[in-house]
Each structure stands twice: as C-alpha cells, then as structure tokens.
Amino acid sequence: MAGPGGDMQWCFSQVKGAIDDDVAEADIISTVEFNHTGELLATGDKGGRVVIFQQEIENKNQPQFRSEYNVYSTFQSHEPEFDYLKSLEIEEKINKIRWLPQKNAAQFLLSTNDKTIKLWKISERDKRPEGYNLKEEDGRYKDPNTITSLRVPVLKPMDLMVEASPRRVFANAHTYHINSVSVNSDNETYLSADDLRINLWHLEITDRSFNIVDIKPANMEELTEVITAAEFHPHQCNTFVYSSSKGTIRLCDMRVSALCDKHSKLFEEPEDPSNRSFFSEIISSISDVKFSHNGRYMMTRDYLSVKIWDLNMENRPVETYQVHEYLRSKLCSLYENDCIFDKFECCWNGNDSVVMTGSYNNFFRMFDRGHRRDVTLEASRENSKPMQVLKPRKVCTGGKRKKDEISVDSLDFNKKILHTAWHPQDNIIAVATTNNLYIFQDKVN
Amino acid sequence: MSGDNEETQTAEETPVEEKEVQEKTISPEKAEEAKLKARYPNLGNKPGGSDLLRKRLQKGQKYFDSGDYNMAKAKIKNKQLPTAAPEKTEITGDHIPTPQDLPQRKPSLVASKLAG
C-alpha cells in the first residue's frame, strides 16, 4: 500500500496486556483513544479502569526511530453501581474516552460508562517543597519552642509522579445507556448521547445539561430506531451528527432551534426493496460515525462495510468499502451467536487518506482512499518480534484455499477487533484485541 | 447497492454444477434468512423492531420480588432446582438468583494488566 515516500509497511512495535488465553472480564478493552498530539494513548476496560500510555521518543534523528509507549498513569474511573429505584445494574465498563485539547500543563479527558461522565485531570508533579519551618522532612510536627530561626522552603526535584483526579462528575442526565461523548470545537461544551437522547453540557457545570435531541416516542411500542453514535463537527461548533440503528445519519445545526429533533440533513442510502431480508436492518445499523479531520467528510461503519459520506451529498455515500463481505453468507450463524450485533469502530489517519476498522480473527482492515487499495492485517502474538513486518492476510471464500489463506469457517469469531485508533499525525496505530493492546508503526515513519 | 455487490461476487464464482448455478440466483442474504426461519419457525417478522430494541434498552434490568426470592430460597433448601421461566423480556419469578448465585459486584481492585 503506497503512502507518501514509498510503500507503507506496517511493523509490530509493542503489545500490552496479559499473554494467557484465560481472559478476565474486567480486562476486556472497551475503548482506545490518542490525545490531540498523539503523545498520550488512553485505554478503558470493562472493569472501569483507564490506562494511559505516553510516547517516549528515543532518537528522532535516526531514520528508523522507534517510539515506545509506556505506562504513564492508571486509575479506576468508574465503579459498578446499582440503581435501586429502577432495579438497574450499572456496569463500570468505560464506553468512551475523549481527550480535551491541552490548555495548560495538565491533561484532561472525559470518560463515561452507561450513566455517568467524568472529567479527569492528569497532572505531573516533579518538584516538592523542602525545608518547612514547622514540619520535619517526614511530616512530623516540630515543637514550636525548638524553632530558633526562619527559612523559606525550597522546591527540590523529585521522581515524577502522575496524579489523576476526578474534577467533574456529570451524572443523572441519562435514562438510557450512553454510547458516545464528543467534545465541541469551542472547548467549552460537549455532548453525550444515549439510545434515545442527546444532551449538551458545559464542561464547568455538572448540575445542568440541555437536551438537544429526543427521539423517544410517546408510546414505547412504536419504537423503531435508536441512536447509536454521535459526534460534533471538528470545526463548526454548531454542527453535530448522530447515527441510528436503521442506517441513517442526521446532521443537526444547533442554531436552528434549541431542540434539534428536526435534522438539517439526512444521510441515507436508498435500498433496493427486492434485496430486503430479515437481516437487512440489523446489518445496516451504524455502529460508529467519525468526521474526517478536515471536516468535509464523515465515515460510518455498519456490520459489513465502511462508508464515506460527503457532507454535501445526502442521498448516497461517495465511497463504500467492504470489510468482510464473505460474512454475508454466514448471517444465520452470526445472528444465533449474537456476533451480528458486534459494534465495530472505525478511524481516519491524520490526513484523511486512509481509513481503518477491525474485523474477526484479530484481523483489521485499512482502505487507502487515494490509491484504491486495501489490506488485511492481523494482530497476533505470533507476529510480535520487534519491528517485524506484518504480512497481509487473505480470507478464502470458496473453492481451493491457497497456502497462507484462511477459510471463512476457520475464522475465530471470539477474536474481535472492535476498537482501533490512529495517531493524529504519524503512521502509528493502536489496535485492541479482546484484552491486549497492539501498537504498530510504519517502517519508514 | 448490496445487489450490485452480490452480482459482482457471483460473477467471480466458477460454476461447477447446475445446482450451484441455481443457487446463484438467490442472494446469500436471503438464503441465510431461509435457514434462520427453518430453524426458528416462530420468529417474528420485525427483526429490527420494538422487541429487539426494547431488549437493548432494558439491558441491566434486574427485578426483585421478595416473595419470589423467598420462594426460590425455600426451593433450594428442599434441594429442588427452580424451573425455567417462559421466554419473556422481563426476568422475574424463579429466575431470581439467591445470594449465593449473585456475581460479586465489586470494583476491580486489581490494576489493569495493560499497566503491568
């Protein structure tokens, strides 16, 4: 796959997590996100924990420099709860993490579970005051009668300590399960979306939020679709989109009215009614929507494909990429084992030329929009020698299976890559398998 | 859109037997649907409709009835297994777990293995 400066070759860089196959539920990775500079990489898991990795740049002057991500901070973001009033068990699983752009020395991120969003401050402490007048170095208080002179405490360097503290807790605003949070380009507000409603918050205010979308029908028997994802436009602070379980995307303009129930644009691809089957609606459900960095396009992921939409064209996508079309003839089994409901995410590279999404058998796919080329790669411990180049994988759909190909029936549907992230500038990607985080980078970075 | 893809797909397949040629005319999706309906004849015709969505919205719902709870507790004391409740969206009756069956809802005190 060609990129600027020659062919892109993806190499193994690092893998994080336990090696053993016996996966504890708490260790299942549920979200992965780079910050705006790519220096920090955050993961959230089913156990409510957040782990943040920091990039250590070894030697940028060398042509083939290896940037390693090492643990920077880890904390328990959410804990399991039980809502006694509604008899509802609230999972601690982190559904989404979104970084705020950096404003000062500290870093901020929003992390959310099904019901509560939290703003976490991650700050560094590398100095501490020494030479107090009233305290000994170990903290014990001195007897004031023994003090004969005064001194000014001095700041002395200490081993770096990274502290995470919850600065805001945004609770009690969602009846249904939160699937998305998105920080606005105004750096003051953000939205949170659940199955039926979207709320607008101010980052400083926790006791109030504005409802901007409400698709709950008066009679729940008439419920036909739910909100699956939502995102603010990267530059226009008045614009956001939300996707539905019926495969539609609505673009809303907050300047039009306080309640954005009426969309400004409706993106929907017409379907041939003769092709309609029992599975049509289920596989058309959009599991992720992401604006391109330049704000001109958006990408959606449904069960079998990735679609690129031009914001100026509502009636069909401009590009469609098949992720694993060979699964179309396996839909019956995939419905029975619930895999048909798996929610895959997708992401853009820094200059919007390549998109990436996950699949089964720990495969993930990249689509080069410009060169019209795609590749299937695998995240596996078998290909985890330092700087080992990843070999493209191929799934055999029928007939004679060539050497190195894998047949559809041999695919492991328990090994799903749902979460992937691309460094905002460089060709470094983070790919999450069930409980491991793989970091790959382009050989000629 | 999906129709176009299926056409290009079937065009690549090499026809071997006449039976295969006949199967080409039925889309793989419809063939899968027929398979599913054969296995579950009672399946409703509203796959993405209210039932599925309501089940999604009710995720996490755990009802408790003290009468059912005590009945279930008494049943286990008599070494009787609680009978399975009929297929319903709400879980009540004998499905209520006794304290011994409840999974421990404690937060993860262990650090994430990604950080280890």
UniProtKB/TrEMBL annotation, chain A:
SUPFAM superfamilies referenced in this protein's UniProt entry, alphabetically: WD40 repeat-like
One Pfam family matching this protein: WD40
Cellular component annotations (GO), alphabetically ordered: protein phosphatase type 2A complex
GO molecular function, one term: protein phosphatase regulator activity
Keywords assigned: Repeat, WD repeat
InterPro entries: PP2A_PR55, PP2A_PR55_CS, WD40/YVTN_repeat-like_dom_sf, WD40_repeat_dom_sf, WD40_rpt
N-terminal signal peptide: none
Keyword Repeat assigned: yes
Protein family (similarity comment): Belongs to the phosphatase 2A regulatory subunit B family.
Family annotation (PANTHER family): PROTEIN PHOSPHATASE PP2A REGULATORY SUBUNIT B
Quaternary structure and partners: PP2A consists of a common heterodimeric core enzyme, composed of a 36 kDa catalytic subunit (subunit C) and a 65 kDa constant regulatory subunit (PR65 or subunit A), that associates with a variety of regulatory subunits.
Entry protein name: Serine/threonine-protein phosphatase 2A 55 kDa regulatory subunit B
Record organism: Oreochromis aureus
UniProtKB/TrEMBL annotation, chain B:
Alphabetical keyword list: Cell cycle, Cell division, Cytoplasm, Mitosis, Phosphoprotein, Protein phosphatase inhibitor
Bias (Acidic residues) ranges: 1-10
Phosphoprotein in keyword set: yes
Domain of life: Eukaryota
Principal cellular location given in the protein's record: cytoplasm
Disordered: region residues: 1-52, 79-116
Localization annotation: Cytoplasm
Record flagged with keyword Phosphoprotein: yes
GO molecular function terms noted in the UniProt entry: protein phosphatase inhibitor activity
Basic and acidic residues: bias regions: 16-36
Gene Ontology cellular component list: cytoplasm
Gene Ontology biological-process entries: cell division
PANTHER family reported for this sequence: CAMP-REGULATED PHOSPHOPROTEIN 19, ENDOSULFINE
Function: Protein phosphatase inhibitor that specifically inhibits protein phosphatase 2A (PP2A) during mitosis.
Family membership noted in the UniProt record: Belongs to the endosulfine family.
Name listed for the protein in its UniProt record: cAMP-regulated phosphoprotein 19
Organism the protein comes from: Pundamilia nyererei
